[in-house]
Structure formats: C-alpha cells, structure tokens
From TrEMBL:
One of its GO terms (cellular component) is cytoplasm. Its main location: cytoplasm. Keywords: Chaperone, Cytoplasm, Protein transport, Translocation, Transport. PANTHER family: PROTEIN-EXPORT PROTEIN SECB (PTHR36918:SF1), PTHR36918. This is Protein-export protein SecB. The keyword Chaperone applies. One of the proteins required for the normal export of preproteins out of the cell cytoplasm. It is a molecular chaperone that binds to a subset of precursor proteins, maintaining them in a translocation-competent state. It also specifically binds to its receptor SecA. Signal peptide: none annotated. GO terms for molecular function: unfolded protein binding. InterPro entries: SecB (IPR003708), SecB-like_sf (IPR035958). Gene3D superfamilies: SecB-like. Pfam families: SecB. It is found in: Cytoplasm.
Length: 162
C-alpha cells in the first residue's frame, strides 16, 4: 500500500527564470547600405536553432534560442535585411525526471522566453528602418521532433550495413 502512495508522490515540477539576456546580436540593413529604396514586397524567412546546457549550480540550465531572420524583396530577390540573434534564458528547474529533461529544456524553456525574443525582433527591425516584424508563434514541439528525426536519420545513415 505504501508503494501506491509513493508512486503518487511525484515531485512537483518547478521552473523559475533566473535571468535572460542577449548573448549576441547583429542587424544589417542591406537595403540602406546599397542606397536602394522604394516599394518592395518583403519575403521573410526565419530559422530557429535551440541549445541547452547544464550550468555549474545545481538545477540550473542555460537555454539558447538562435534566430536568423532574413528579408528579401520578392520580385528582385535581393536582401533587405538580416537579423541574427542569440537569446539566452537561465532557468532553475526542479522535479523534472531525467528522461524528460531534454525535451523540457528545448520546448518549455524557449516557450517561456519567446515573448521577450519577439519584442526584441520587433524593436530591432523597427529601429533598423523597417516596419516592425512581429514573429508568428514558434512551434517548439515541432522543432524538437524534427531535430530528433534528423538525428535518427543521420545515425541510421552512419550505421554500417551488413
């Protein structure tokens, strides 16, 4: 009977954001540098990469969201601007089982910092001379699953065949 009680006493998950900051950022207004202007139809592409690592303090993790945003003119194909941003969240996480920690770090943590990241992208593009770019929500679950599938296919390709 005690075993049932213990099984139900799973530790409660706690996540606290201890800090967040821009580690690296670059914004290049290519259109202004080339002296071009006028009406353009922008085509914006956004690439997202995620990384997480354990910090030296107990239960602390650093999660990095790397964004590359490139806007091109739809008609001419020339680049209007490029924004590269590494945004870091430092988290204290307690109660997540070890086998669930990796997806938790790469899904839930970026989800918590995303509104701040979105605001930075909007402000930087506006301050860079363009209409503010308001990023759509990012599906971090899909990004995680795609990365797992990519790693599995790489492992399968690297495995020797008999």
């Amino acid at each position: 009977m005690a075993e049932n009680g213990e099984a139900q006493q799973q530790p409660q998950v706690q996540m606290n954001i201890l800090g967040q900051f821009i580690r690296d950022m670059s914004f290049e207004n290519v259109m202004a540098q080339k002296g071009t202007g006028g009406e353009v139809q922008p085509d914006v592409s956004v690439q997202v990469n995620l990384d997480a690592k354990k910090r030296s303090a107990e239960n602390q993790y650093e999660v990095v969201t790397k964004l590359t945003v490139e806007s091109k003119n739809k008609e001419a194909g020339n680049v209007l601007f490029v924004l590269e941003l590494e945004y870091v969240g430092v988290f204290n996480i307690v109660g997540v089982p070890e086998d669930q920690l990796h997806p938790f770090l790469l899904i839930e943590c970026p989800r918590m910092t995303f509104p701040f990241l979105r605001r930075i992208v909007s402000d930087v593009t506006r301050d860079g001379g363009f209409p503010p770019l308001n990023l759509d929500n990012i599906d971090f679950v899909a990004i995680y699953r795609n990365e797992l599938a990519r790693r599995q296919s790489e492992a399968a390709a690297a495995a020797p065949t008999q």
